[in-house]
Amino acid sequence: MTEARGSAGRNGEGHARYATGTPCWVSLMVHGLAATQEFYGTLFGWEFRPGPQQLGPYVRALLDGREVAGIGRLPPDRHLPIAWTPYLASDDVGRTAETIRLCGGTVGVGPLDAEEAGRLAICSDPSGAVFGVWQAAAHRGTGIAGVPGTPAWHELLTFESESVAKFYGTVFGYEEEPVVSADIDYLTLHLDGRPVAGLHGVGTSLPRDRGPHWLTYFEVADTDEALDHVVDLGGHVLKPAHDSAHGRVATVADPEGARFCLIQTDRLIQTDRR
């Protein structure tokens, strides 16, 4: 885990287009849109405004007036795992989608236009983990980072890291930096020498109802206090707060079951600490 903000500054200053392969947005599709807005609005201080409606009702979450994440409503007949989905930047989503297919991945939705905001595709890697691809137009992606309530890191939980890393490396041009350890299968994906995401091979420890999936870490001012809020708001604690080399971390789920991590970090340290 590290500084992974891409082109968005600490307070959204100088927010430029994200480089290809950089996580640039995160989105959640749920059944109860209003209740989910209430949960995250209270937990993170988000406000909401309407976003593109191509895939149904959708809102963008804002923090201090800057866009942070998206939440949409699933059709009533769609019973999919409720999960936060990271979007990876692309200069040409059509070309990226074709490369994903050629490398053994699947393109489930798109590419399609999201009004004037840009173009998107929703894909899965060869192990089945779902992610999005975003080609920016008017909407460049997350406009604020490094403060409580913003995405801090994205991590793929998968069976093993090596083979799936080849897929992401071929599609997005990442370089890999493995963690040398007999106890952990982990590597970091880098762009231009900057770490942008992690791959964690956990073997049979994957949740049976999930399979391989991406996990988003959200920054909080106080992990223990945020955990209390999660529970009070109807969420669940999956892994209690503990200290790590990267900060104080906990894994939780919202009332519909979407898993995410809370992390309290010292954002004055801008180096890879894994």
Describe this structure in words.
The chain has 274 residues and is of the alpha+beta class. The protein folds into two domains: 23-136, 2,3-Dihydroxybiphenyl 1,2-Dioxygenase, domain 1, CATH 3.10.180; 151-264, 2,3-Dihydroxybiphenyl 1,2-Dioxygenase, domain 1, CATH 3.10.180. Helices cover 16% and strands 41% of the residues. It contains four helices and 16 strands. The protein has helices spanning 33-44, 93-102, 161-172, 223-232; strands at residues 23-30, 47-50, 58-63, 66-73, 84-89, 106-114, 118-124, 130-136, 151-158, 175-178, 185-191, 194-201, 213-219, 236-244, 247-253, 259-264. The strands form two sheets. Strands 2-3-4-1-5-8-7-6 form an eight-stranded mixed beta sheet, covered by helices on one side. Strands 10-11-12-9-13-16-15-14 form an eight-stranded mixed beta sheet. The longest helix is centred in the first third of the chain and has 12 residues, at 33-44. The radius of gyration is 17 Å and the shape is globular. The N and C termini lie close together (6 Å). Residues 2-14 and 268-274 have low confidence and may be disordered. This is VOC domain-containing protein. InterPro entries: Anthracycline_SecMetBiosynth, Glyas_Bleomycin-R_OHBP_Dase, Glyoxalase_6, VOC_core. It comes from Streptomyces spinoverrucosus. Residues 22-136, 150-265 form the VOC domain.
Features:
globular, 2,3-Dihydroxybiphenyl 1,2-Dioxygenase, domain 1, 274 residues, Anthracycline_SecMetBiosynth, VOC domain-containing protein, 8-stranded mixed β-sheet, VOC_core, 4 helices, Glyoxalase_6, alpha+beta, single chain
